[in-house]
Amino acid sequence: MDGQASLTIKKSNLYSKENGQQGWIQASDGMKYGFYGIELSTDESTLNIPIIYISGLNSKLELVQVSLMRLKMAPLVSAKGIVQINDDVKMVVISQCMFQDINITGAGGNAIRIGGTQSKSTSGINTVINDTIFKSINSKGDSNNRGGSAIAQLSQQYILNIIGGSKFDSIKCTNGDGGAIYASLFNMSKFVVDEGTSFTNCDSVAEANSGGRGGGIYLLLPYGSENDFMIWMSIVFNLNKASKFGRDIFIYCQNISALDYTDKILFDVFNSEYNKVNAIYGTETASKLGESPRIDYDLLSTFKQTFSNSLFISSKQWRSFDTQHCGIILVPCQTIDYAKIRMINGEWNQDTISGEGDGMHDLIHELIIIEEFVI
Predict the structure, then answer these.
(1) What is the distance between the alpha carbons of residues 224 and 186, in angstroms, rounded to a whole number?
(2) Which domain of life is it from (predicted)?
(3) Helical segments of the chain, H only
(4) CA 86 from centroid of its chain's CA atoms
(5) How far is CA 142 from the centre of its chain?
(6) pLDDT tens column, 70-109
């Protein structure tokens, strides 16, 4: 479907219209389905099933400039998504879309719910969410306390990229962990948030001792450090809340020490404007011999601030940039000329060192070139 048009679902509060249906718009059979420049709305009836339901081995879904606004859904038996994506779908692209003023009650659910249907997938779901706005969304967690009012990623094998300055604003989940996003990383799944994505006023609210962790993002990593996630340096967290722990991020994993999370959470947690109180927390299910597992543990306590004139440089353009944040091993500078500028900036020279003996500052003197480089 293509064009600047609107489509209104007229349920007229007649539940019989949804009997035996998986979604108001159903797509399957391994085909590609696209919606472009469409506003999807309802007659103010409360829906019990998704607006869009896509399934079928190797099916593909593309939403571009699609608005889903002023929606109410109350699933009867199990949690649903306004957009429900089955485990066997191959590719999902959601670009320049708007999900706004959505209220989900009943059995709970999410604006976008990916996987969790137990269908078999041969290759996993590759999902890209680009330049999309999620605003004023309220929902409740599912029967397993999985939240993510905006996005719940439950598939066993997937790649989820959230890019292009996507915005999560005023997102609230009650009785489920993960205010805006809940993502489980099984079987070498990948979760990446990049390119200026922001989380503002996102909230995970505990109810009957369920939920309340991860106001912005909740990550479930059951098998430890081999699961891949990355939260890049341009991400913004502001004014988020969690009834219990992890206002911005909460990570549930097997072993915190093995997770290497300080190399995966790359935004500047030492910025003077960043609120460090109850910001990034985690729980582990295992621990070193003779030690108790760390439960609701402040992960920021292990971040180490390094002031250094040691910069990493790489000619590989896939992840090297000449920007004010470059120079670390995961985001090297691209040219020597820019690295020289970085070396005289305040954070990279010895004059910035303060508080000697506090155990928080290291000073290194190196210039490191990664891979091949043309001088």
Answers:
(1) 10
(2) Eukaryota
(3) 336-344
(4) 19
(5) 18
(6) 999 999 999 999 999 998 898 999 999 999 999 999 999 9
